[in-house]
Amino acid sequence: MSSKRFENKTIIVTGAAGGIGEAYARALAAEGANVVVADLADEKGKQVAADIGGLYVSTDVADEESAKALAAATVDAYGSIDGLVNNAAIYGGMKLDFLITVPWDYYKKFMSVNLDGALNVTRAVYPHMTNGGGAIVNQSSTAAWLYSGFYGLAKVGVNGLTQQLATELGGQNIRVNAIAPGPIDTEATRTTTPKEMVADIVNRLPLKRFGTPEDLVGMCLFLLSEEAGWITGQIFNVDGGQVIRS
Ligand SMILES: NC(=O)c1ccc[n+]([C@@H]2O[C@H](COP(=O)([O-])OP(=O)(O)OC[C@H]3O[C@@H](n4cnc5c(N)ncnc54)[C@H](O)[C@@H]3O)[C@@H](O)[C@H]2O)c1
Questions:
Q1: Beta-ladder partners of 176
Q2: What does the CA dihedral 168, 143, 105, 89 come to, rounded to 10 degrees?
Q3: What gap in Å lies between CA 153 and CA 147, rounded to an integer?
Q4: Distance 90 CA to ligand 1 centre (A)
Q5: DSSP string, 42-60
Q6: Could you give the domains of the chain?
Q7: 181 CA: nearest ligand 1 atom
Q8: Among 1, 4, 157, 182, which is most exposed with the fewest C-beta within 10 angstroms?
Q9: If you measure from the C-alpha of residue 92 to the centroid of ligand 1, how many angstroms do you get, rounded to a whole number?
Q10: What is the pTM of this model?
Q11: Is-contact 133 84, C-beta < 8 A?
């Protein structure tokens, strides 16, 4: 097996200005991919793209025109698109509230990014997957199976979206899978989830440590690669055993 699995492949990673998305972008570039960093955080996003020799495109995943402009800029730079990682979400600094009390405006904005954002970018990108197919990886969370209010509800939606899109796009050899990470040590988690809560969650994991973005990289790159050529519509937990489904 070649050590550079993504030579001549073009892959967009949304939300890659920091945290998990940045780790994916760096790992993909190290394996030879043309990486497009798509984020709202322009300064950090440009820095990541510059570090890895990729392209930065300022993008709001919730906006249809912005997603189309992302696809167009990618095709202009690299000709076509082979992979998409729908990782962007409102997570770092998110409001902590309940489904029954969260203000509707906040809820609707949140869902437009955390659920519809993945569909919006997929709709803009898939017509350009013209190299005999493509691979899409959606970022879910174990929150989909645990109580976590509207954050978890959006991830339930991401899981459903993964299954439905896999069916719609399979005929074009476009595979759609999701990764459901457990608690991951990113700046966003450190600033959003109270320390005691994280310590309690980690203590209850079968593998008793906080996950790192690097723990997720292997699964993401596998799902984007040809080794996963007959895998679609699946949600893979990378979570230290946090959720064991029967
Ligand atoms: N950190 C964890 O414990 C954990 C666990 C499970 C799942 N996840 C998921 O992993 C992903 C990344 O998490 P992270 O910890 O790196 O958090 P993060 O907040 O650092 O990453 C989210 C990124 O998305 C970007 N973003 C937000 N809204 C956007 C928009 N409208 N358009 C474009 N970009 C936008 C942000 O600028 C940021 O760079 C998220 O989908 C999150 O829900 C995280």
A1: 136
A2: -70
A3: 9
A4: 6
A5: HHHHHHHHHHHT-EEEE--
A6: 10-237 (3.40.50.720)
A7: 6
A8: 1
A9: 7
A10: 0.98
A11: no
In whole angstroms, what is the distance from residue 52 CA to residue 243 CA? 34
DSSP run (H or E) holding 220: helix 213-224
- Mutation test of ligand 1: which of 12, 14, 20, 86 has the most ligand atoms closer than 8 Å to its C-beta? 20
Percent of the chain clearing pLDDT 70 (strictly above)? 99
Q: List alpha helices for the chain, DSSP H.
A: 19-30, 42-52, 64-78, 104-114, 116-125, 149-169, 187-192, 195-203, 213-224
Give first-to-last CA distance, the chain, whole Å.
34
Amino acid, single-letter form, for residue 215: D
14-57 per-position pLDDT tens digit: 999 999 999 999 999 999 999 999 999 999 999 999 999 999 99
Please list the active-site residues: 151
121 in helix, strand or coil?
helix
Of all residues in the chain, the percent with pLDDT exceeding 90 is 97
In the reported structure, the alpha carbon of residue 189 is separated from the centroid of ligand 1 by a whole-number distance in angstroms of: 10
Segment 104-153, tens digit of pLDDT: 999 999 999 999 999 999 999 999 999 999 999 999 999 999 999 999 99
Which of 91, 155, 159, 185, when mutated, tests ligand 1's pocket best, judged by the most ligand atoms within 8 Å of its CB? 91
For residue 86, which of 138, 37, 124 has the smallest C-alpha distance?
A: 138
Structure tokens at 60: 């709001």
pLDDT at 245: 86
Residue type, 101: T
Residue closest by Cα to atom 1 of ligand 1: 184
